[in-house]
Amino acid sequence: MDSEVKRPSGRHHGDLRRALEAAAMDVVAEKGLAGFTLAEVSRRAGVSVAAPYKHFADREALLATLVLRSYEEQRRRYRAAMARVADPVEKLAAFASAYVRFAVDERSLFELTFAAGLDKRARPELAEAGAALLGLLEAPAHAICGDDQRAHRLVLAVAACAHGHAVFVLEGVLDGPRDARRQAASAARVLANAHVAL
Amino acid sequence: MDSEVKRPSGRHHGDLRRALEAAAMDVVAEKGLAGFTLAEVSRRAGVSVAAPYKHFADREALLATLVLRSYEEQRRRYRAAMARVADPVEKLAAFASAYVRFAVDERSLFELTFAAGLDKRARPELAEAGAALLGLLEAPAHAICGDDQRAHRLVLAVAACAHGHAVFVLEGVLDGPRDARRQAASAARVLANAHVAL
DNA sequence: GTCTATAGCTGGATAGAC
DNA sequence: GTCTATCCAGCTATAGAC
Question: Are residues B160 and A165, on separate chains, in Cβ contact within 8 Å?
Fold first, then answer.
């Protein structure tokens, strides 16, 4: 508790970095990726346009942090949703449902994950966070079909299918969020059961 | 053949509208949606930045035309791919495969369809073109399960699943284009057969 | 129908004071 | 660590000449 509450030196926060991240989240949530500019973020945080450069190398660096936060939040939610059921097939279905829910509830954050256009080879921490999401599915998939190879293919199929349903509901192709969740879960069950049968 | 070959009045084309569309396609294909600006398109077409405004109301109008072209091209391809097989289940699989192929071969055009951020309620021709794509699937789906309601749900499930696989391969989550196509087709078959069984 | 020229705006990023 | 001030760049859209 010692050095926690420092006096702001210029005019502002004790923790501008966090404030900038929060402001950036708000901007993305409200105006989407296109509305994300350092100028706008600075305005929201109540600082000058020069201030962020002391905390982030450039615009992209802040953006990458946001994407990472999005991955972390998704993992948290999917994990929680899957923990509520015991059956492996139902875990996959719960994932699909939660995936669609996140897309609907946190649309901009969800879109950010895919539309940010960041090079994942240049940012291994992002690739890792993305892989960690799919990692949630490995255990149930393996429980469904012992074979590693087959289990991984099931993981990808379920995730891809969930993603498609999420995008379609955002695009208005699928009717309501509720139906979309149910259908995504249903598709996940079908895929999982097919792997059991084979 | 009469009034076809008019003399360019200023300095340029007989059909600048088309030339602009083509140039815009090139720009999007090369630099993605973010690189699409009227200034850049004008440069490519070899005209001044003012010229496009005689043919398109504004930037968005040209963009909407591009999206429409993308839909048309997709419909053409999916239709051709589906025509090569007779079995309804295989038609759905062929669609899924072609869908992934288009995403890989024409990445920017594919992304344009979803990322352009155009209001489809304000542009009914786009909503219609999108619906026409799904329309391709209705007949096979109906052949698989007589019930209209169920058939439509199968259509959506297959399309969503194909979309998810397409996005995943673009993101590098799925390995190679070839495997991605096979897996998308496989998932389509599983979904279709499940609807047969029920 | 196309051009030149320009107005008006917004953003990224840096230099230097404090 | 933050500010002020500034530079440079790019885009959209319009006005008016030809």
Answer: yes
User: CATH number for the domain including A20?
Assistant: 1.10.10.60
- Structural domain including B22 reads 1-56
Q: In angstroms, rounded to a whole number, what is the distance separating the alpha carbons of residues B45 and A9?
A: 53
R_g (Cα) of chain B, nearest Å: 20
| Segment A82-137, tens digit of pLDDT | 999 999 999 999 999 999 999 999 999 999 999 888 888 899 999 999 999 999 99
Total structural domains within chain B? 2
Is B64 inside any structural domain?
Answer: no
Residues A133 and A179 grouped into a single domain: yes
Band of pLDDT at residue B9, cut at 50, 70 and 90? low
How far is A74 from A72, CA to CA, in rounded Å? 5
Alpha helices in chain A (DSSP H): 16-31, 38-45, 59-83, 88-105, 107-115, 124-144, 148-171, 177-197
Q: Across the interface, do A163 and B159 touch by the CB < 8 Å criterion?
A: no
CB of A13 within 7 Å of some strand D atom: yes
Q: pLDDT digit string (tens) for B13-50?
A: 789 999 999 999 999 999 999 999 999 999 999 999 99
Do B84 and B172 lie in one domain? The reply is: yes
Separation CA A140–CA A136 (nearest Å): 8
Model confidence over A148-158: pLDDT tens digits? Answer: 999 999 999 99
Q: Using CB atoms, which residue from B134, B171, B191 is nearest to A187?
A: B191
Instruction: Verify whether the Cβ–Cβ distance B159 to A174 is below 8 Å.
Output: no
Residue nearest to nucleotide C18 (CA to C1'): A10
Its pTM stands at: 0.93
Q: Please tell me the distance from the alpha carbon of residue A89 to that of residue A191, in angstroms, as a whole number.
A: 9
For nucleotide C6, the protein residue with its alpha carbon nearest to C1' is B50
Residue A37's nearest nucleotide, by CA–C1', is C11
Nucleotides of D under 7 A from a protein CB: 1-6, 10-16, 18
A107 touches chain B (CB under 8 A): no
